[in-house]
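Forum > Structural Biology > Help requests

Title: Can anyone predict the 3D structure of CD209 antigen-like protein E?

Hi all, first post here. I have the sequence for CD209 antigen-like protein E but no way to get a structure on my laptop. I'd be grateful if someone could post the structure tokens.
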Amino acid sequence: MEDKENTSSSYEKLVSQDLTAEDDLPVHRNQEHQVTMSALRPGFTLNHYKMFTVSLAVLALILLVVDIGLGVYYYKLTDGDVVKDISSEIAKLQISYNAAVQGRDDALKLLATERSQQQVTRWEHEHLTARIKDYGNQVERIQMDIATLKSQLPMIREGCRHCAPGWTFLSSTCFYFPFASTYSRTVWQEARQSCQRLGGDLVVLDSRDKQVALFNFINTFRNPSGILHLSGFWIGLTDAEDEGVWKWLDGTKLKEGFWSIGEPNNVNNEDCAAIYPTDNPFMAWNDAPCEFRLKWICESAPRSIG
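Reply #1:
Sure, ran it for you. Structure tokens for CD209 antigen-like protein E below:
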């Protein structure tokens, strides 16, 4: 019996302690519990749902209006005058583009033609410039020839008195110069025979004054564009009898020569002498093979005047 009473007494104490503990909880904890429960009330959740539904309905309406507007605009583009205007503008632009391309092609062709004509004009200008320069050179040569002939008039008049026709009176002697193109070059022996037929012989240049006079005369008719080794004139000097011993036609040995530097050298059995229109009258002789073909100079004594 005592045990039952003790157990009943303990149970009452525990219940009494739990109630006391619940009464001692803080006030704010109970308030938070109440707020949380009120937030979860069915009325509060329904209001938010209604607002969300209204928002979706408004958004759907806006989208519908935009869709209808785009449809109308597209209809106008496809069936209205806008498409026609755009197509017309595109066609006009295409025509303008084609015209511009054609104009460019025509301009390029014209440019090519002008360039070709310009090149022809440039060639013609170069040709005319060369011709003018050549004419100028010819005029200078003609003027020089005129001046030379004028200077030779007294000599010619004296030649008519002292020399046969066609001969030139120079340095108190009559000389014959076959400058004309009708006279072809010939070998040394034939040149001497030609002089003998005219009453003279190949020239003998045995003095300084005679050398200078003849050198200046042949240089007057010198052709600058001619070949130098073909521009010489045979003179009456040879070493054919005794190699290295040069003699004039009368057998007189050469005392003073007017050889070019390194001459005579007898490279190709060169036994005859010739005078050339060089730049220095005292270095104007070369030895050459007697079979070589050159012009020549004849000499004869002047006629006495009674």
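The CA atoms of residues 1 and 104 lie 131 Å apart. Residues 1-8, 13-40 have pLDDT under 50 and may be disordered.
Shout if anything looks off.
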